[in-house]
Structures are given as C-alpha cells and as structure tokens.
Amino acid sequence: MQRCRATPSTEEMNLLGCQITTPSAKDVSPLGHTSFTPPHNETRRHMNKSQNQTSRSPKGTQKGNNMEQSDIQPPGLLELATKEDLEKMKSDRICQITAEIVLIVPRTKDDLRAYFILLQNPQFNNTSTYVIYAHLLRQIATLVEADHHFLVHWLKKLSQKSFKQLVERLLQFISLRLFPAKPEEFPPITKCSWWIPSASKVLALLNTANNLVHPPLIPYTDFYNSTLDHIDLMEEYHTWQSFGNSHRFSFCQYPFVISIAAKKIIIQRDSEQQMISIARQSLVDKVSRRQRPDMNMLFLNMKVRRTHLVSDSLDELTRKRADLKKKLKVTFVGEAGLDMGGLTKEWFLLLIRQIFHPDYGMFAYHKDSHCHWFSSFKCDNYSEFRLVGILMGLAVYNSITLDIRFPPCCYKKLLSPPIVPSDQNTPVGICSVTIDDLCQIMPELAHGLSELLSYEGNVEEDFYSTFQVFQEEFGIIKSYNLKPGGDKIPVTNQNRKEYVQLYTDFLLNKSIYKQFAAFYYGFHSVCASNALMLLRPEEVEILVCGSPELDMHALQRSTQYDGYAKTDLTIRYFWDVVLGFPLDLQKKLLHFTTGSDRVPVGGMADLNFKISKNETSTNWLPVAHTCFNQLCLPPYKSKKDLKQKLIIGISNSEGFGLE
Predict the structure, then answer these.
(1) Catalytic one among 18, 192, 252, 627?
(2) Active-site residue 4, yes or no?
(3) Alpha-carbon gap, residue 238 to 234, rounded angstroms
(4) Would you state the pLDDT for residue 537?
(5) Which CA distances in Å does 534 have to 489, 517, 600?
(6) Cα(285)–Cα(277) distance, rounded to whole angstroms?
(7) Does Transferase appear among the keywords (predicted)?
(8) Is residue 421 part of a domain?
(9) What is the overall mean pLDDT for the chain?
(10) Is there a domain that residue 468 lies in?
C-alpha cells in the first residue's frame, strides 16, 4: 500500500468545503505528539478494500497524492455524473485517505488539520466505514492536551449545522456499537472495546467547544444519547464511584451524554439505596436493644400544625436530621388521614407559599425577571434558609415538583462545589458571576451597568461614583465598600470593568453569603451524593421545579377518568378547548390543577392527572384538588359554556388552587 502524506493538499481541502481558521498563540499551547498505535487487522482489510474499489475506477482516478478534480473522474465523465455521484466519489476517496492518514503520528499543525477535516467526512454515517472511523477517533482521543486545544478552537468555529452533524454522527456511532442492527458488520466487542471510550472522548472535545461559545452552537440537550436510557445505568454509576479516575470506562465520566431522565433514575435509585440502608440500620439497632420494631421507623414522619406550619416543620426536621433520607410521610395534627402522597404534596405547597410570601421577608420577588432572590437583610438566625434548602432536597428525593422560581445562577451556586467540603472553613455557594447572571434577576440594574461599560464620555466626572454600594435594610440606608477604601476610590474609564465585576459579585455572592450558605447546607444534608456531580445547574432546576416544555397531547393520552369516559361529550369538549388554548392559558390550567405550571422530568405521564365528574349544577366552576392532580368537572352541555367556566376558574384561582 502506498503511504499517503498526512497533510491533504489545498485541493483536497477544497473538495471537503472546509475553511480552517488557525488559532493565535494566545489561544492554544504549542503542539505536542502522540504515541503511534498499530492498526488492527480489520483496518488493513478495509484499507485494502478501499484500494481495490479505487483501482476499479476509470483511468485517472489515482495520480499519486495530489487529488485534483480530474483525479476524481476524467473530464468527460464529470459532465455526466450527478452532484450526488460526485459527492459519493469524493467521500470514498477521503475514506481511503483517512485509512492511510490514521497510521501517521501528527507532527505538525497541518497533520492535525487533516484529522479535523477527515472528522467531517459524511461517509462516516455508513456503518461500513466504522472500523476506519473508530481508528480516526482513537487517534484524536489520544492526542496530547495542546493538540486538543487546537481542535477545540477549530470546532467552535464550525457552523451550527456542521457542528450538529458531528455530534449526531458520534452519538449514532455509540448507539450502534451498543445495540448493532447487524452485529456481523462489526468486529467482536472484545476486539473493539476501545471504540466507545474513544468516541466519548471526542464528544467531550465537542462539548467543551460548545460551552465556550455564547450562545452555544447547539443546546446541551442535543448531546443526550437516549440509547443510554436502556442500559444498566446503576452499574455505570457504581463503576464510576468504585474506580474513580482509573482507566476503567464509565459513561458517568461523560455525564453530558446522559439524559436528565436517566440522571433522575440514578439519583432516585441512589437515594433509595441510602434510604434502605438507613432504615435497615434503624431496624437492626431496635432488634439489638430487644425493642419491638415499629414500621414508622422506616419513614421520615412529620407531624405539623397548620397554624404553626413553618416553626413546626423546622423543629421536626431539626430533630430528625438522621432520618432525612427516609421516605417522607406527613400528618397534620388534629386531622384524620393516611398520607398516600397527597398530604406530603400539600405540606410542600403550603410551606413554600408561606415562606416565599413577600411579607415573610426571606426572599424578594423581582417582577421584571419573574423570580425570587435572597434577601440581604442581616439576621441572627438563618435556620429558615436551611429549611428551604432541605425542602428542595426532599422534593428531589421524593419526586415532588415545587413551584419555586429561582434564577439559573442560584443552581450554579448550589453546585459550588457539588460535594460538601470536609473543611468547614471552605466557602460554599460562591461561584464566578457576570453581568449576564445579574440580568437574570435585576435586568434594569444590569442594563444600567452595561451602559456604564459602554459610556464614551468621562465616567468619573459624569457618574461621580465610588467603589461603594448602598442598600436599604429595615428603612435604614447602609453603605458597603466593594474594596478596601472603596468610598474614596472614584470609578473611572480605566477601572469601570473592575467596579462592575465587584458590584455584581457583591450582590450575588458576598451580600447574601450567610443566607445562601445555610440554604446550601440544607439542600446537601438531603442530597449529599456523588450523583450531583453528574448534573448541570439547569438540570438541578428541572429536577426541583420541572420542565417548562408542555405537551398537552401527551397529557391527554395519559389522563385518567372518574365518572367520565374519554369518549363522553364533555371530555371531548374539554380537550378541544384545552388544545386550542394559547400557552399562557395551558400553563394556568396546569398550575390550577397541580400547583405548578411545569412538568416533571418523566413527562406528563408522571403527573397522574385525573378528571372526575362533579355531579353539581353546570353553573358551577371547575374545582381542583392540587394534592392529587385532580380536576372536578361538571357535565357542561356546550363547548362554549365549558370554555367560559374553565377560563374563569383557572384565571381567578387564589394561591395554589387548594381544595
């Protein structure tokens, strides 16, 4: 076999339609070298096959190493070939080049550029090229860090379409290696166990490139591989936990490919195992002391008074810290009833409504951003902030969706760090924040600071500001220096960036540190698990609050009926009306019936939504039992009447619509 040089010619690059942007020295480190890995026999067979196919092409197909247009087909045939034929021939030729290039250790930037070009060959969509493709991926995966920096820089310069195609091709490669439609197409798994790790490492480069672009080239959810939902994820998780940074592969090393639904399964099973372990230990302790076991010891039992909801809940959770990872059961004092899930949800809804009420003073609601943020008021006891953190952790463990609206940076702070540090002096809940994070909470203030940054006049003379901020606390204006002696340091054109950064850091980190630290420790007292390291901040928000993506057709398919059949006229009217609602009314309906306008991670089916027949006058409005996700609907005789009553009901419900 004639060995081809590692660097394609300019003509070869033009055939691929690729434009390469060389990074500056500031962006990357100098190139290094990687070790040479001999190809397996199957690679040689595929290379020979490619050569044989090429040798049967019309005369002139191969002319050494320079691949001009005339090298693909003689001029006469080019006029007869379709565009698709030409693209196919180009890709075939590139596959042959690939088979030759993957044998060569990259020694120059041009060699690395060849890898980058070959990675984009659409012919690798075909399973018949997977052996060659796998070797290309391994060569890229085993490059030194400096070379990876170059590749990441080039990858982030790709168009959105090209970038997405690369991601989809790699995800398909992994899926088909896990569950091949035709197993005989691939070598035995024992001979190619490195295929999936190599593809995952290349995907990690793409994920890094995507995260460096603002906004990202594609949503982070496009990296999810739904095929992984069908493998033993707990085995992957245990492998990851047991072997840590060893060379044993686990998909948990690359959490960006695991869907939020799969991560929820991992977290739930991990929490169940912890619950079972704690409950078993409690049972063993009882028996060893010759005491009669009580079934209540297997649960986190909360007994609270409605009139003292916050204080009773705080006292109960403080006394039962060791039981936080047990299954939650709630009892309201003086009320008969067995908690089958409804009382637990009601407890969450009532407690959240009371704590987040503006008069309570713990959180400030910002109308412009429609979210809550921590009050910066100083106090002697921050235990109630810890209570909110515990509530969020219990909600995740008990699969309860909370109607809480925190900005995205809150969840970023909640994962800073994802594992509680052993040293209690280590700061927690502190993360790097920008003016974009501030805009999520206080858009008007963020806009004003942006204006300051772009102001073309004399900042010192026109703004007359210093490195000092003022806040109102209980009617008293207090001042805080952003840096030592800040009240005497003027903000100028030269230091305004520092001022904006310090101001943002003060508002989102320093001024609320004690409040957020209590909140952080409360959440992690329940959710202390390595599984949190698998999550992005956006995914934590979805686990706590649900997804904003509504699919009312899915809700219709999963709805249960009591007193009605899905073919009844009233039910048909109902779904005709609801499916025709604009998004804001659909959200109001969901909030009216479930207490939240968001959807659990498992989708609409996890809501267990029920429509019951209300044998009352058709002049009555619909009634909702949010604790059971139940809508009681009178048998309205016309679609117009049903629509009118439903809109009135969902638009004027008070609080959480509790019945």
Answers:
(1) 627
(2) no
(3) 6
(4) 94
(5) 43, 22, 19
(6) 12
(7) yes
(8) no
(9) 82
(10) no
